[in-house]
């Protein structure tokens, strides 16, 4: 099985061999790693200032593989078996084993490079594609990739035999490397519609860890979840429920139907990035995630070591139970930084005082208008953090979502225009002693503005 990753020199990034920093694999050194499927080799067919290509080659012994899995619930059959040759779950496991640090988005030598998109070309010369040769475009296209999936004939000398269920898959795009690796980890087995190992409940967690930033809003999320979990109905239902809860009610239908020019990253992920960037900007170390739901933002916050104490608060026991399941699986040293608590945003909770920053991400629009003053008093008057980050939909942008009628979600009590949001922020500042900077989140349409609007409040005595 073979997979290659290629990047090129750009005006702002020289040389292309920076790819070695991101992958934590030196271009001048061929390396071999042991995996459950066989040895995985990493080498660089080309590595110079202009172009750098890293290759992952997985060697599998088909006889040993068949014997090891005989009688088990797997896709590995006796004698005739494409497992060792066609990219699928075994290559996905090798990706995770070999490029763990890169998949987590870490690069200590070049953190700014790991945080942003790079020009990237991916090739998988033999990818099983069960479901039609248009399936790769349906899976990778919404994630911002340009997709080419060339059918491979059963035999080039006998055209009448037709095409095989394999494609020569090529992807190109401006993508963050960690995102690309996570997408491949999930979608290669989905293309194959098979896995070489037993699928248990922990596989739901793996899916959410790798797909949490993009799967909730993917138009094929049901198909992806079903295939990744080998059509185990109980697990699929759990995954879909948790995906909905991850963005809470925030995984809105409108976001799933964003215009094609806005699909570089799902809006939910762009929004989380904007919130984390605002918290970094003000130097926050202790953070409140108010209305945390199932923990979508918490997952992003724990990735930032500078946030030393994080509190997720929500009124819903069900949402907190979902967040707790994720929290319990964290490494101990990470888990100690995160606290979950039940708290209502419309009742003042003095135990939430003393934090550097609080976040209300897609929360205010879920509160009845007559109860909004109580939320304002609770957050800006009682908890009174040094900074507050608020995001909410821009209702003017709704005309850019095809098929959307009315509000973006049935649980929204209202949605503000840019002028209404500005007026609300100005009123809050006047009553509670804050200043506010308003910013767009997502593509800022010249006519109707961005899909999401953000306000960064700062307490006046701290300015």
Automatic annotation (TrEMBL):
The answer on whether this UniProt entry bears the keyword Transport reads: no
Q: Which Pfam families match?
A: Hen1_L, Methyltransf_12
The organism sits in which domain of life?
A: Bacteria
The reaction(s) catalysed by this protein are: small RNA 3'-end nucleotide + S-adenosyl-L-methionine = small RNA 3'-end 2'-O-methylnucleotide + S-adenosyl-L-homocysteine + H(+)
Per its Swiss-Prot or TrEMBL entry, what cofactor is needed? Answer: Mg(2+)
- Gene3D superfamilies assigned to the protein according to its UniProt record, in alphabetical order: Hen1, N-terminal domain, Vaccinia Virus protein VP39
Q: Where do the Hen1 N-terminal domain residues begin and end?
A: 1-243
Q: Where is the Methyltransferase type domain?
A: 288-376
This protein's UniProt keywords:
Magnesium, Metal-binding, Methyltransferase, RNA-binding, RNA-mediated gene silencing, S-adenosyl-L-methionine, Transferase
- Write the Enzyme Commission number(s) for this entry: 2.1.1.386
* Record NCBIfam families: bacter_Hen1
Family, per the entry? Belongs to the methyltransferase superfamily. HEN1 family.
- Name of the molecule in the record: Small RNA 2'-O-methyltransferase
**In the record, what lineage is assigned to the organism producing the protein?**
Bacteria, Bacillati, Actinomycetota, Actinomycetes, Pseudonocardiales
């Amino acid at each position: 099985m073979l997979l290659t990753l290629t990047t090129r020199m750009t005006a702002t990034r020289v040389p292309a061999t920076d790819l070695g920093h991101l992958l934590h694999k030196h271009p001048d050194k061929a390396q071999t790693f042991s995996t459950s499927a066989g040895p995985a080799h990493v080498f660089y067919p080309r590595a110079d200032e202009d172009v750098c290509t890293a290759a992952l080659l997985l060697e599998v012994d088909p006889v040993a593989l068949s014997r090891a899995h005989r009688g088990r619930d797997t896709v590995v059959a006796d004698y005739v078996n494409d497992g060792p040759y066609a990219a699928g779950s075994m290559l996905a496991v090798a990706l995770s084993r070999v490029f763990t640090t890169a998949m987590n988005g870490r690069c200590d030598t070049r953190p700014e490079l790991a945080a942003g998109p790079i020009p990237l070309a991916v090739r998988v010369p033999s990818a099983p594609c069960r479901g039609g040769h248009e399936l790769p475009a349906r899976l990778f296209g919404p994630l911002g990739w340009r997709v080419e999936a060339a059918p491979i004939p059963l035999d080039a000398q006998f055209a009448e035999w037709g095409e095989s269920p394999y494609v020569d898959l090529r992807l190109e795009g401006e993508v963050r490397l960690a995102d690309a690796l996570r997408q491949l980890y999930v979608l290669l087995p989905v293309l194959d519609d098979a896995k070489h190992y037993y699928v248990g409940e922990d596989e739901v967690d793996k899916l959410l860890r790798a797909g949490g930033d993009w799967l909730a809003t993917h138009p094929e999320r049901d198909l992806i979840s079903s295939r990744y979990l080998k059509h185990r109905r109980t697990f699929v239902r759990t995954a879909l429920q948790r995906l909905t809860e991850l963005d809470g009610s925030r995984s809105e239908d409108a976001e799933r139907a964003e215009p094609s020019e806005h699909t570089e990253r799902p809006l939910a992920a762009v929004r989380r990035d904007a919130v984390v960037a605002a918290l970094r900007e003000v130097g926050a170390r202790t953070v409140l995630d108010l209305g945390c739901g199932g923990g979508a933002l918490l997952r992003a916050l724990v990735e930032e070591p500078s946030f030393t104490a994080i509190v997720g608060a929500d009124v819903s026991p069900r949402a907190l139970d979902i967040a707790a399941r994720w929290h319990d699986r964290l490494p101990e040293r990470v888990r100690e930084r995160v606290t979950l608590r039940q708290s209502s945003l419309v009742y003042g909770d003095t135990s939430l005082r003393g934090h550097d920053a609080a976040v209300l991400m897609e929360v205010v629009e879920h509160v009845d208008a007559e109860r909004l003053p109580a939320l304002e008093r609770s957050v800006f008057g009682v908890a009174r953090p040094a900074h507050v980050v608020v995001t909410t939909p821009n209702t003017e942008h709704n005309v850019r979502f095809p098929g959307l009628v009315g509000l973006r979600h049935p649980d929204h009590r209202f949605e503000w225009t840019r002028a209404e949001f500005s007026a609300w922020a100005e009123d809050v500042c006047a009553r509670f002693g804050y200043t506010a900077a308003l910013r767009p989140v997502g593509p800022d349409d010249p006519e109707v503005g961005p899909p999401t609007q953000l306000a960064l409040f700062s307490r006046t005595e701290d300015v």
